[in-house]
Specification:
mainly beta, 35% strand
Length: 116
């Protein structure tokens, strides 16, 4: 199984379904992905623009928006991941607070995709 040309390891059919696969991506970005599946020498592809395309989201404990990597939740915050079709951002836990910070104070990974 290849997702955006990268191997998706530990691919397996999801028990109880006819057409669902599960696999692990190394460091995906959030959003739609191209998919190629090869079984017994035959390859099928799905374009990222297809309704059946993979849509990668962040798990609980991580955050990221469309086109960004999923980053671990920062210390002092909770991250719900992708809930109710919304990519949640970190939120402060009791005893912590957020100050408006400048671009210079952003995590380097966020500077790649966020603008001031």
């Amino acid at each position: 199984v290849l997702v955006q040309g990268e191997e998706c390891s530990s691919a397996r059919r999801v028990p109880g379904t006819d057409s669902s696969l599960s696999c692990l991506l190394a460091a995906p970005t959030v959003g739609h992905k191209n998919l190629s599946i090869t079984v017994a020498g035959q390859t099928g592809t799905v374009s990222q623009s297809d309704d059946r395309a993979i849509y990668s989201v962040c798990a609980k404990g991580y955050y990221g928006q469309e086109g960004e990597p999923c980053l671990p939740c920062p210390r002092g915050a909770e991250c719900d991941g992708y809930v109710n079709q919304v990519h949640s951002e970190p939120r402060s836990i009791p005893g912590w607070f957020v100050l408006n910070v400048s671009q210079e104070e952003c995590l380097p990974q966020r500077k790649l995709t966020r603008t001031t």
